[in-house]
Amino acid sequence: MSKVVAGRIHIDSYDPSVKDYLALMKPRVMSLVVFTAFCGLSLAPGNIHPLIAISAILFITIGAGSAAAINMWYDRDIDAIMKRTQKRPIITGAINPDEALSFGIVTGVLSVILMALCVNITSAILLSITILYYVFIYTIWLKRSSIQNVVIGGAAGALPPMIGWAAVSGEVSWQSFTLFAIIFMWTPPHSWALALFRVQDYRDCGVPMMPVIKGDQYTKKQIFLYSVLMVITTLVPYLLGMSSQIYLALALILGAGFIYYTIKLFVDANNKYAKKLFWYSIFYLFAIFLSLLVF
Question: Which Pfam families did the record assign (predicted)?
């Protein structure tokens, strides 16, 4: 049982289950990360044994989950304040914070070692960079100190398709960097849309998200700017010969929908379209990578 007093967590007892440890790994966020990694693996030139491919995706999944677990451990003070995070397992008292940290470290180290031994060194290095970047650069440094937290920190979430690509090819290429760039440009409008309709949560816990520091209108302008850059970036795979004209058409249609929601934000005083943009952005990224995979 747990209770929150003045932003601090007081735990009477811990009784973690497998479900609690899975929740510690942020499965909803991780599912999109793993899917983009799978797309990178599938799009890469060359051949890979199915067992090695499955292993690579498994290690990426574990690595991403380890970073999420350490993130929850470090952010447990603000998670106790924010309404949308108060059901996380450390906050509810399901998992001891020290056990969560140990779980994150052990699974992270294992995922990198196994990736190096079972797949290749390049993918293992990229996986280690992803974990360390998310933990130290985003979680510990940028999240609480910079208005550009989700811009610079977004690099961690953009690396998985490069890891998948490297698992097959053993190298980093312009094609794999293009996949990285799509997610990198997608992250700010996705995150700022969430911040617009959850602004009070971020204000209460002192996280300097853009709407808190610069206000709604400035944030909406930045969302529009990054959305345009993102849509342009999604056209690059076609220019590099990675996709067909069908993908190009779908990217333009999906991008038009994204831009539509960003424009609607400017005439939306109550930020109702911010929530719609947030959910559309998740569908959008999934649809873009699925289109790359299929077409």
Answer: UbiA
How many other β-carbons are positioned within 10 Å of the β-carbon of residue 152?
A: 16
Could you read off the pLDDT of 212-268 as tens digits, one per residue?
Answer: 999 999 999 999 999 999 999 999 999 999 999 999 999 999 999 999 999 999 988
Say how far apart CA 18 and CA 26 lie, in whole Å: 13
Mark 192-219 as b/e (b = at least 16 C-beta within 10 Å): bbbbbbbbebbeebebbbbbbeeebeeb
CA dihedral 103, 108, 110, 115 (to 10 degrees): 150
Rounded distance between C-alpha atoms, residue 89 and residue 133, angstroms = 23
Q: What are phi and psi of 3, to 5 degrees?
A: -145, 155
- CATH homologous superfamily, domain 1-149: UbiA prenyltransferase (1.10.357.140)
Q: Contact, 122 vs 171, CB < 8 A?
A: yes
Residue 10, helix vs strand vs coil: strand
Contact 73, 100 (CB under 8 A): yes
Under a CB-based contact definition with an 8 Å cutoff, are residues 157 and 190 in contact?
Answer: no
254: left (phi over 0), alpha (psi -120 to 50) or beta: alpha
Give the chain's end-to-end CA distance (angstroms, integer): 51
CA–CA dist 58, 53 (Å, integer): 9
Local structure of 9: helix, strand or coil: strand
Residue 164 to residue 99: CA distance in whole angstroms: 29
For residues 286 and 265, give the distance between their C-alpha atoms in angstroms, rounded to a whole number.
22
Say which residue the tokens 């379209």 belong to: 273
Query: Domain residues of the chain, as ranges?
Result: 1-149, 173-295
Are 236 and 178 in contact by the 8 Å Cβ rule? The answer is yes
Entry pTM:
0.91
